[in-house]
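User: Quick one: structure for sequence A, then sequence B.

Assistant: Sequence A:
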Amino acid sequence: MGYLDMQQCLGDLERRGQLVRIRQELDARLEIGAVQRRVFAAGGPALLFENVRGCRFPMVGNVFGTRERLRFIFRDTLRTIERLFALKVDPLDALRRPWRYAGVPLALARAVPRTVRSGPALAVRARISDLPMLVSWPRDGGAYATLPQVYSESPARPGYAGSNLGMYRVQLSGNAYEPDREVGLHYQIHRGLGHHHAEALARGQRLPVSVFVGGPPAMTLAAVMPLPDGMPEVFFAGVLGGRRLPMLRRPGALPVPAHADFCIQGHIVPGTGKPEGPFGDHLGYYSLTHDFPVLEVDAVFHRPDAVWPFTTVGRPPQEDTMFGAFIHELTAELVPTVFSGVHEVHAVDAAGVHPLLLAVGSERYVPYAERRTPQELLTNGMSLLGSTQTSLSKYVLIAAREDDARLSAHDVPGFFRHMLERVDLGRDLHFITRTTMDTLDYSGISLNQGSKLLWASCGPARRTLATEVPAGLALPEGFGDPRLAAPGILVLRGPAHDRGRDDHDPRLEALARALEGLPGLEGLPLVVCADDAALAARNWDNLLWVTFTRSDPATDIYGAGAFTRCKHWGCAGPLVIDARLKTYHAPPLEPDPEVERRVDALGAPGGPLAGII
């Protein structure tokens, strides 16, 4: 049976040598977050910070920092979850092999929470200012809860069946928030809390919201799980945790997990909103200050032995990468049941997840045709952009399994090689402009607005990709340092960007014209223009991060021999992506050098992290 609370989980991890206690006093401002990131990068253990400067609560980080640790934490129920998902893929398998699913009815019976009369979660009252004030990056606007479970219920359908549990960042201090009475709620578009908030606004009502921190690890994973509409996260948490979730109720308040470490209860009042941010986020940049809803705090509770779980985010990979990889393991076989004709998807973590989605689909519409062309692939791609979290994707690259049965979206170099060998740049690029995009992506024309590109290629290979830079490559003034990042991909250094939003750069247009017809570029269908060509071309992680987090398809794509015909854009090639930092982009995250030196000292001989970092 799964863990009842975080304390049970940490005890098990410590007995296995997977938790280290740090007794030295450290500051939640910058120091503790920097330690967590460094230990995660080293594949190290969970970290229990027992002496947090100016705070009476211990903090624990990196609990979910490796796939092996995630599998261990949920070891008792993983097989059941896998069998439940297998039934979704093939319901008749239960008739063919009923013995495999003997435990499924009991698991489903654990989905609905149960009400209990007592539990430690509401034992002690506190204030927001008593909580650990984690500041992860130097320019963060205040302290944040970074592993919160934000719970709300539909005003139209109150109760667990109409509930949402999401991980939306919660700003605890800073900006214009009234100390101890207000916290900021940053939720992105396409999120369940937003649906509940819209219902409350339509009714002119306050929306009750609770923020849980800690408690059963199953609640934390459920809060980030991309579940289909109609499947409450608290139900999934019960199945994953191997027990019906015990919940406490206070009169007039939302239910509270009986074994949560902390609970903040409050309301979003209609018409309220205050600046939230900046915050160092998972794309590797600061998300800037914008108005978001304010949670007016009614009460703060904690259990007597409370510990504050946290993580820090930044340029991938980080601890949240492990959540994504683990969720993919659980749900990979479900993809064809959600997206007809799609066999595999990969939201690329190195590119910040939402900026780049690779997919393998089917091309069966005209099997008798002499040459395969993208048709069903376009249906597949539009389906991916039309529902679930894949709808937030900015670049969707989709290939046909019929061209190579061994092709995998998780083999990034192989996938790009396959696409670049086959792409017809005059046919295969399909833009969606002036549309919604990820709230955290600042490459578009405004907050939440930008463009998307669906790139679908299939058929036989059209070209052999170049494996070296053409000799004597002549480039316009201001461009230089050509480097081969991968077969078929050329990276150039460009001049600093100096344009505004929603505006093409004449210098990139001139570059595209200059590349038209140049000898030696036949095998280089993709050119990336970056501020630092050496950095971008150094490895695949750098190339993906620079290219896809720093470009908006409609604004930043150019092409040699470009044309628009009946509103379809294409080019003769090569395709040019402007991946420079723009004047309107959010700044990239950079650590504090002095803090990093102090972390180095913790890893020196005799230090608490010696041999770990």
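Sequence B:
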Amino acid sequence: MSGERRFFRRDRLTGLIAIGAVGALCVAAVVFGVGMASAKYHLADVGGWLTSSKKGEVVHVNGLSGKVDGKVTLSGTAGHKMKVVQQGGVVLIIDETTGVVSRVDPAHLNVVQGVAYRGAAGMQVVSGSGSAYALDQKGSVQRLDPMTLATQGDPVSLAGPLGAAAIDAKATLWVPTTVNGQAANVQGGRPGQPVPVGRANDDLQLTVAGGTAVVTDFTTAESLILGANGVQVKVKLPSVVSQVGKYKVYAPTSTDGQLVPLLAGKSLIVLNSGNGSLSSVALQLPNHQLQTPQVLGQKVYIPDASAGNLLVYDAATNRMDPQVPVTGKPGPMDAFVKDGLLWVNNPNSPKAVVVDGSGGHKPIQKYTGDVPGGSENPIPKAGGGDQGLPTPKLPVHPRLPKLPITPPKHKPDPPKVTPPNPPTNLRAAAQPDGSIKVDFQPGGGGAATGYRLVTPAGLKATPARLSADGPDYTFTAKGGTCGQEYEFAVAAQYKNGDHQSEIQSEYTDPTLSCTQPDAPSGITGTGTAQGANVSWQAPPNAKGVTYKVQVTGPKSFTNNNVSGTSLTIPSIWTNGSYTINVTASNGAGGKSASVNQTLTGPAQHYPGQNAGNTGDKSFLHKGPANDSDQSNWITGFNGQSITVDCQKIGGQFTHSNGKAYFSGKLWDYIHYGGHQGYIIGYLVTTPRQPDWQNYNGLPLWECAG
């Protein structure tokens, strides 16, 4: 993979703006044969806006009929590269030649304003969930009013250059910052806590799938599913993703559902961001210029810019469906999913196509004047139509006489042996039990007698052989090591004269033999005399799992390799509120869970000392300092058991007798005889005496605050 993909690859951007002068935008609206910008129009509720760069137009297409029902022309933009950002009722037009961003008013079919954003060359404009932002590569992020395009608040500065950004279901803007290997986020125009997702300068790609942010690291071949507390799921991808220079990997910036398709060469990898499952299939694809795949339902659509068609893979049946024609000619294609429909458009061509969830498609003619009420399709007058036209009579053809069948004079020669074609569409997917499921499709050709799975050493296939009659063409391979990759082929067997022969398929992509475990549950923390104790319940599929434990709060702790389900942390002995995060991982990745919990160390008991005579008062204070409140005191506690809840370093105290032994800044929070408060440390025989300047440490905890 080259630098072309690293930061601002065109097929990943929502909108890329080249800097230029602001031009006046004059609009002519054409719909129902009316050119009045003040009139109101009704466009189809299920529809999409497509660009026609050659004519300087954007057209609205009815998604159910494939017909143009509205058109907006921007004068002076013919031949310019344009993009459309459309979310809900917000439609933004980005003129990449002039750097002007404008908003279309669908109700009146006019452009209400155009704004040019000047700054660093190369900018993005993203819109979604009621929010909009403009971003430049240097790292500036400016919040916009999606209706007026006016700036809102001060810009946010991130570590540039910025990757392709998108907005999730909670209106949070996510953007990869490759220089530090993080996913930055902005909520309501304010920066949030960035999430570490890789190493510095790793090749990162963001996809918002079904409203959830997913970051794919092409350098390490990992996908990370983000949540409220950072990385929630980490999925290891086949190594083909990270083969720099050999393959160019394509991934969409957003998908309507939870599936994230990744195209690397002829390998199609599909990640389910809902549960972290993964499947990989080696497809029979032409050596063409392929573009970013899109998902609609269970089908993956791959634009073929070399042929002007859509390649279609059905994940449910593991088959390649017939191609969908778009233009039938070479040229770029913009593809996106909106309103449950796939829209594919060549901005330089009059042709486009819309595909529905069942795979049915309708061609679109963008340049047509056949708009309802237009000159080429006037509204029919009452009583018009085909009424009164005679019904044509069809000619009747006489039946041909039957010809006699002449039997052959000799027996036909025995048929020649035709080998079957190699099996196709091999798909390998790791299973929760550590096995690998491999399914395929027969290749046709000659008659096969059966199929066998070609497995790596040490793995065993079940069943040992599959019938040629199907209908199930699936093997299961067991015996693999979690985290190790395996490749498989399928051999088609056939009878070749008096002996059996077979012909073998290509190998699958490297596939892991396990899936990542579920997240731990029942996480809890307790303060003990030995430090903080953290425990959790293992997930059901915990075989071969290790845990990463992170505790953050007044004190922090991390252990990346815990084998059990509990841990005592001697370095945490400060009372307060903590976040405990536990990640269960194996060779395929991991999932994490976290809780917020208050940890408080247990009270300890020590004899009192240095209290003077029976009547001498030892004052208790509200804080760890000698204050003026002398309303709370205890007496006569020498040798008596004092309950010490915790300790705190506070104000320096020096006794009036001037002796160094009776001075210090360590205070004990105690309970005694119905009284409680802070007392200077030398009055209690805590383990570290006579050091009244430093904490004793465990078993005593530090007081909160």
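Residues 1-38, 377-403 have pLDDT under 50 and may be disordered. Residues 43 and 106 are 7 Å apart (CA to CA).

User: Thanks, that's what I needed.
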